[in-house]
Amino acid sequence: MYKIKEAFYSLQGEGAHAGRPALFCRFTGCNLWSGKESQRMEAQCQFCDTDFVGTDGQNGGRFNTAAALMSHLDTLWPEGAAHKYIIFTGGEPALQLDDALIAAAKALQYTIAIETNGTRPLPSGIDWICVSPKVAAPLVVNEGHELKLVFPQEHLPPESFSHLSFDNFFLQPMDQSALPSDRIALEDTQTQTLRYCLQNPQWRLSLQTHKMLGID
Ligand SMILES: C[S@@+](CC[C@H](N)C(=O)[O-])C[C@H]1O[C@@H](n2cnc3c(N)ncnc32)[C@H](O)[C@@H]1O
Ligand SMILES: Nc1nc2[nH]cc(C(=O)O)c2c(=O)[nH]1
Ligand code: SF4
Ligand SMILES: [Mg+2]
């Protein structure tokens, strides 16, 4: 049984593929936070900007088989259009994404991407792996296409990842507007991030462009 919080067709807002039309499948649940606001400050990941609880979002639900889920998701792709691209996210997609779902997505000609916290092993066959490390959680996915670190995170300097086998290294300013107590404003995390990139040119700036555009 796959549990899906929501699914939508939008533009990839972040990282190396920013601006690319994509189908998003947001799985329910995460191993680093329950998703309950009352438990945020005890969570292993405390700055999450996403609601991944339940199956009640747009196009969300429970699906018994990979084929049933993929045929539901495929109705959201523009009819007849090629360049099919699906991004599995969450929550933590590595808790639910499996070989059967990869096969079902490939059967419908999708190129497959994942946004993961990197703490769980991944099935093979994913075309674009984006890992976003979190402070309290050791990485098991140490290679991929894109490492996208939310910045700044206390005790998690970018230098601790710069030697890993990723094709692209991004820093994404922490958006603290979702948090109950605003500790630093977004402008400040943006300024800190761009300063770090200018001083360390291995790293590129990733802005969450969908938030600027006011789209999903
Ligand atoms: C909601 S997460 C879901 C996928 C996976 N659990 C992960 O953490 O990578 C999607 C992306 O948003 C990033 N993100 C989450 N909260 C953020 C915030 N407050 N500011 C900036 N990026 C954030 C994550 O680091 C990740 O790259
Ligand atoms: N447009 C858009 N791009 C995104 N890239 C990663 C997202 C995510 O929540 O995983 C996301 C998202 O939620 N919306
Ligand atoms: S690991 Fe990802 S989904 Fe889980 S709480 Fe952190 S940012 Fe949110
Ligand atoms: Mg998001």
From TrEMBL:
Q: One GO molecular function term? A: S-adenosyl-L-methionine binding
Q: Give the binding site residues for Mg(2+).
A: T50
Q: Which GO terms describe its biological process?
A: tRNA queuosine(34) biosynthetic process
Which cofactors are required for activity? [4Fe-4S] cluster; Mg(2+); S-adenosyl-L-methionine
Gene3D superfamilies xref list: Aldolase class I
Give the Radical SAM core domain ranges. 44-121
Entry's cofactor comment: Binds 1 [4Fe-4S] cluster. The cluster is coordinated with 3 cysteines and an exchangeable S-adenosyl-L-methionine.
Instruction: Indicate which residues the UniProt annotation says bind S-adenosyl-L-methionine.
Output: F47, C48, D49, G91, S132, P133, K134, Q172, P173, M174, D175
Q: Reaction(s) catalyzed by this protein?
A: 6-carboxy-5,6,7,8-tetrahydropterin + H(+) = 7-carboxy-7-carbaguanine + NH4(+)
Show the InterPro entries listed in the entry: 7-CO-7-deazaguanine_synth-like, Aldolase_TIM, QueE_Cx14CxxC, rSAM, rSAM_sf
Q: In which pathway does it act?
A: Purine metabolism; 7-cyano-7-deazaguanine biosynthesis
Q: Which parts of the sequence bind substrate? A: L11, Q12, G13, R26, T89
Task: List ligand-binding residues for [4Fe-4S] cluster.
Answer: C30, C45, C48
Query: EC?
Result: 4.3.99.3
Q: What does this protein do?
A: Catalyzes the complex heterocyclic radical-mediated conversion of 6-carboxy-5,6,7,8-tetrahydropterin (CPH4) to 7-carboxy-7-deazaguanine (CDG), a step common to the biosynthetic pathways of all 7-deazapurine-containing compounds.
Q: How does it assemble?
A: Homodimer.
What the record says about family reads: Belongs to the radical SAM superfamily. 7-carboxy-7-deazaguanine synthase family.
Q: What is the name listed in the Swiss-Prot or TrEMBL entry for this protein?
A: 7-carboxy-7-deazaguanine synthase
Its organism's taxonomic lineage begins at: Bacteria, Pseudomonadati, Pseudomonadota, Gammaproteobacteria, Oceanospirillales
